[in-house]
Write a structure and sequence with these properties.
- There is one protein chain.
- With about 55 residues, the chain is mainly α.
- Helix content is about 80%, strand content about 0%.
- The protein has a domain of about 35 residues.
- This is Cellulose synthase operon protein D.
Length: about 55
C-alpha cells in the first residue's frame, strides 16, 4: 500500500469511531433505566431501540 492509501484507510476508520464518552453516557442511561424500571420492564424498550439502530 502507498502512503496515500494508508491515509485514506486511517481516515475511514477514524470516521467510524464514536465521539469519546458516548458509550459511557449510553451505559449510564441504560443502567439507570434498569435500576428504575427493572430488567423485564426495560427489555421491550431496549429491543425496540436495538431494532431502530440496526436500520
Amino acid at each position: 500500500m502507498t502512503d496515500k492509501n494508508n491515509a485514506e484507510v486511517m481516515a475511514w476508520f477514524q470516521q467510524q469511531q464514536t465521539p469519546a464518552g458516548w458509550f459511557d453516557l449510553l451505559l449510564i442511561m441504560i443502567d439507570g433505566m434498569l435500576n428504575n424500571a427493572g430488567e423485564l420492564e426495560s427489555q421491550p424498550f431496549l429491543r425496540q431501540m436495538g431494532g431502530s439502530a440496526g436500520r
